[in-house]
Amino acid sequence: MSDNEEEPFMEVHEIVTQKLGHIPVAKGDFKKLPSKVQKWVIHSVNICQPRAIYICDGSKPEADEVTHKLLERGTLTKLTKYEECYLCRTDPSDVARVESKTWITTPEKYDTVPHVREGVKGILGQWMSPHDMKKEIDERFPGCMKGRTMYVIPFSMGPIGSPLSKIGVQLTDSNYVLLCMRIMTRVSPRVFEFMGDHDFVKCLHSVGCPRPVERKVINHWPCNPDNVIIAHFPEERKVKSYGSGYGGNSLLGKKCFALRIASVIARDEGWMAEHMLIMSVTDPNGKETFIAAAFPSACGKTNLAMIQPTLPGYKVQCVGDDIAWMRFNSKGQLRGINPENGFFGVAPGTNFKTNPNAMRSFQKNSIFTNVAETADGGYFWEGLEDEIDKNMSITTWLNQEWRIGKAGTAAHPNARFTCPASQCPIMHPKWEDPEGVPISALIFGGRRPTGVPLVLESFSWEHGVMIGACVKSESTAAAEHKGKKIMHDPMAMRPFMGYNFGKYLDHWLSLKKDGRQMPKIFHVNWFRVDEHGKFLWPGFGENIRVLDWIIQRCQGKDIAVKSPIGYLPKKGSIKMEGLKDPVNWDELFSLPKHYWLDDTHESTRFLEDQVGCDVPEVIMKLLKEQEESFKKM
Ligand code: GTP
Ligand code: SPV
Ligand code: MN
């Protein structure tokens, strides 16, 4: 089927029973939508001018029908080696989040971005005025769905009906997006039963390729890379995304709603929406501890959330791998939920050694985007070399013939698997508990090749917030940044902040109240290297050794020593027995004085430049104290 041909819905259904103005409803009962949803759909239809609307119910038959269409068109290829698994190759110019085209619009600029020093380009969020944004939107959305179907997707972030959950409706002209939303969120008209007087988050998405298409469609993946815009209107609880079908750009429940919009709701309602995994660790005594951890994109959340511990007697269970919504309950306990329903995980590097639980999660009902394909109908990416026949012929994500050992790579570095969380063999029995799970520790981390020790504990809640504010990491393929430069990524939220970062730090500080059990805050670094560039720490399943130290600290064990940057493990207090290669403790935990003096200066400067008068005083005071203690060393 050519990309200019209209989809054959009407032949399939022949149930043009309802009319929306002159727009047929291909599926679903428009009248059953709550009236505020109807109103918004009509408004959006008038602007986007789709040829039909399709009201989704999230059911299996619906997914089967859409999958069938995408197979016919050639957007999806069946991976016959598994059960109901599909490969999607995107247009090679639509492969990651586009941070440079992601905006937040509020009437008042400083609600969105901090007071940046004159002449400095702010990196903590991009603001556009309502007036300028209107122009951008008006240039793109009118007529943008011509010749395409508009899918109406009702979804819940969090278990349907939980007091911690929120409802959204996404309108999109991409059926690939519909299939992924169905895995990543809870798509069901049942959400409307719980909507009542509450607001819903309005998510409008278009690939920006009305028919007849002007731009040549590559790989049957319509998109409009030159005109991408991802616009957020936090006050109106609204997202408008145009031009990209990929990941966080198009699955609007994820970064747009569950982080950028939700962080604003969380500020207003006194809770937290964070780029964090949630996991539990049960020690050999049977004591269970829940941990939430924030690492920047492609820095190890999925891997940590599902680790297979190498220490005997420990059990890990997964609650979520990317986003945590957390709030203190009336007893002063921090409770967290995973608002998502699936994993959209980095494929390269994932194998049965590094992450067997992820591997077991995507053997069925999964979508693989921009991975390579083996001749026997399987997936392939960098990291799977030891798990397939070395002579297997492979077709790369760019559709080229390839073999292991040949130059270049088979999968895109940001290739991803999309699979239902329920398929992960170590999901926690309470992962959908409407009350959430009790969080005892928060961890920050990043890719830090030099200077930063394997683990440290903050002195206090405030000091932990300071550590979070100074998170840095090597850039990865999750967004458009090129090369491996070390970038600031405070709280692992730089690309996902919904409001002024200084106010966000204030919000974190304000959460500490009498009667609340504040979680302990830690920082970890799996990525420190020696002078030859080799990782000093084996990582993955061995990270349980660090988690063990962390939970012992949560239990009050005296196994830490004070350093200028926080409490470090007493020498020997991390279990090292059974490690394949010996670990150089002194190198893993050294704090080179000059490195840290420079780093502390640089972080101070960063906050002064980027957050200016919005930085809470206590954060600057703690940085000053850190500098002084290094000077005394
Ligand atoms: P997003 O989904 O983008 O938010 O990423 P994430 O934080 O979930 O990252 P993920 O767990 O998918 O890890 C990304 C990459 O980091 C993979 O290529 C992993 O192989 C690598 N990685 C994860 N954990 C470790 C570790 O402990 N040590 C080392 N050396 N690499 C790791
Ligand atoms: C990330 O980049 O942190 C992701 C992938 O989790 S995306 O959904 O594309 O944002
Ligand atoms: Mn993420």
From TrEMBL:
SUPFAM superfamilies: PEP carboxykinase N-terminal domain (SSF68923), PEP carboxykinase-like (SSF53795). Residues 271-628 form the Phosphoenolpyruvate carboxykinase C-terminal P-loop domain. The keyword Signal does not apply. One of its GO terms (molecular function) is GTP binding. It comes from the Eukaryota. Keywords: Decarboxylase, GTP-binding, Lyase, Manganese, Metal-binding, Nucleotide-binding. PROSITE patterns: PEPCK_GTP (PS00505). Its cofactor is Mn(2+). One of its GO terms (cellular component) is cytosol. Residues 39-267 form the Phosphoenolpyruvate carboxykinase GTP-utilising N-terminal domain. It holds the Pfam family PEPCK_GTP. GO terms for biological process: cellular response to glucose stimulus; gluconeogenesis; glycerol biosynthetic process from pyruvate; oxaloacetate metabolic process; propionate catabolic process; response to lipid; response to starvation. Its EC number is 4.1.1.32. Belongs to the phosphoenolpyruvate carboxykinase [GTP] family. NCBIfam families: PRK04210.1. Monomer. This is phosphoenolpyruvate carboxykinase (GTP).
